[in-house]
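To illustrate the input format used throughout this study, we show a single complete record. The first block contains the structure-token representation of the backbone; no residue identities are included at this stage. The design step must infer an amino acid for every position from geometry alone.
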């Protein structure tokens, strides 16, 4: 097997430590940014849902401000956002390169997307359940956690899965400005040095990661559907 790999992936085999490190960096960017994105996106999605017109905490001023901010950041191509946030990234992380330098732009680029996914998932719930909870005297916080989130778990799982897959692709794109990971590995060796086997190996790993996320997401969604 090793001889076969050396024959078809000679450049990858000669850079195995770098290849393994790039996979680890991609996983680090995904896990660190993903946790923050989940918290921020879930919060924003809930706030957008409850403050919109006829929401349980209707506040059109708050809704309009958040709605415009989310739309603004969603409309900016990620590669431009990466460059535009360099000063803020340096201020927060102390650097604009490597894994630490990728976290801030990944959050700004993905949290608004996830918040919209959350808002859409929550909008699918039967409004009668909220009305019933209100009739029984439930307060806004209780409705949010015991009705909105609980009843929309399958939709939220699907939203999280879609966002996680999108995040994987953005970590690869972040490699264009030296953020590390498989994107950086593929660009430095696969593209700039014309080592096509490096590019193919990086793509295969990314496809496997995306497939694994989709399988796990589908399994959780099926189990949480009632």
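Output of the design step:
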């Amino acid at each position: 097997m090793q001889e076969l790999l050396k024959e078809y992936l000679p450049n990858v085999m000669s850079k195995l430590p770098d290849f393994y490190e790039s996979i680890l960096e991609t996983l680090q960017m995904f896990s660190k940014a993903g946790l923050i994105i989940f918290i921020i996106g879930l919060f924003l999605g809930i706030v957008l849902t409850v403050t919109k017109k006829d929401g349980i905490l209707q506040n059109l001023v708050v809704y309009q401000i958040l709605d415009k901010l989310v739309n603004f950041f969603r409309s900016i191509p990620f590669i431009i956002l990466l460059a535009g946030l360099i000063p803020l990234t340096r201020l927060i992380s102390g650097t604009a390169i490597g894994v630490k330098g990728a976290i801030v732009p990944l959050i700004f680029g993905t949290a608004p997307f996830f918040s919209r996914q959350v808002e859409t998932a929550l909008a699918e719930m039967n409004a009668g359940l909220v009305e019933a909870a209100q009739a029984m005297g439930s307060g806004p916080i209780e409705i949010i956690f015991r009705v909105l989130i609980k009843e929309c778990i399958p939709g939220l799982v699907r939203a999280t899965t879609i966002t996680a897959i999108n995040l994987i692709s953005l970590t690869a794109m972040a490699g264009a400005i030296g953020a590390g990971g498989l994107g950086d590995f593929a660009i430095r060796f696969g593209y700039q040095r014309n080592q096509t086997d490096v590019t193919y190996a990086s793509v295969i790993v990314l496809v496997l990661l995306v497939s694994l996320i989709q399988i796990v997401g589908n399994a959780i969604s099926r189990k949480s559907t009632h």
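Structural context for interpreting the output: DSSP finds twelve helices and no strands in the chain. The chain has a mean pLDDT of 89.
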